């Protein structure tokens, strides 16, 4: 059987794939539709995903990393962070991980979070959406052009 996979071009190239297991192809299509349904992301969600791209972090470490990456422009409150994380857990963008640092470097009350493949794909799609938006703003003369 030949299955046509139609998805976001930067996530999975559209191509014909011989497929004995059509549910695999369906899963890729479903994932692309899930990604589209989640866009545009709230800025807080995007920043949290970015903070998890290089390592698992606990809540307070996410707050610190977002503040560092934004040079203090975005300071997440604990309430905002944990409401966002709860939504991200429900939509499959992040998972709570059981992997922990050595006990002497950890506090047992902390919960650590990891970005999922879906979360990474959604962050990539959002970055592409923002890139396209900036390109449009430059064409309209409302954003500076790069040299």
Structural notes for this entry:
By secondary structure, the chain is mainly alpha-helical. It folds into two domains: about 1-40; about 40-145, Winged helix-like DNA-binding domain superfamily/Winged helix DNA-binding domain (Arc Repressor Mutant, subunit A, Orthogonal Bundle), CATH 1.10.10.10. The chain has helices spanning about 20-40, 45-50, 60-70, 80-90, 115-140, and strands at about 1-5, 15-20, 55-60, 95, 110-115. Strands 3-5-4 form a three-stranded antiparallel beta sheet. A two-stranded antiparallel ribbon has the order 1-2. It starts with a strand and ends in an 8-residue tail after the last helix. Mean pLDDT is about 85; it is low at about 1-25.
Strand content: 5-15%
Count of alpha/pi helices: 5
Largest sheet: spatial strand order: 3-5-4
Number of domains: 2
Large-scale geometry = globular
Structural class, from helix and strand content?
mainly alpha
Termini separation comes to: 49 Å
Given as residue ranges, the uncertain stretches (5+ residues, pLDDT < 50) are 1-23
CATH architecture of the largest domain: Orthogonal Bundle
Largest β sheet strand count, sense and barrel closure = 3 strands, antiparallel
Task: Give, in order, the helices and strands.
Answer: EEHHEHHEEH
Mean pLDDT: 83
**Gyration radius, rounded:** 18 Å
User: Regarding CATH, which class of the largest domain?
Assistant: Mainly Alpha
The count of β-strands is 5
CATH topology of the largest domain: Arc Repressor Mutant, subunit A
- The helix content, as a percent range, equals 40-55%
The CATH superfamily name of the largest domain is Winged helix-like DNA-binding domain superfamily/Winged helix DNA-binding domain
């Amino acid at each position: 059987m030949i299955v046509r996979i139609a998805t976001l071009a930067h996530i999975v190239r559209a191509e014909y794939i011989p497929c004995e297991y059509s549910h695999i192809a369906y899963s890729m299509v479903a994932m692309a539709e899930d990604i589209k349904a989640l866009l545009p992301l709230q800025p807080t969600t995007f920043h949290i995903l970015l903070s998890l791209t290089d390592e698992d972090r606990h809540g307070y470490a996410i707050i610190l990393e977002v503040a560092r990456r934004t040079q203090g422009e975005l300071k997440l409150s604990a309430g905002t962070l944990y409401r966002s994380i709860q939504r991200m857990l429900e939509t499959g963008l992040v998972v709570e991980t059981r992997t922990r640092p050595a006990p002497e470097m950890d506090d047992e009350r902390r919960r650590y979070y990891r970005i999922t493949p879906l979360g990474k794909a959604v962050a990539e799609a959002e970055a592409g959406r923002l890139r396209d938006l900036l390109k449009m703003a430059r064409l309209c003369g409302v954003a500076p052009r790069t040299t």
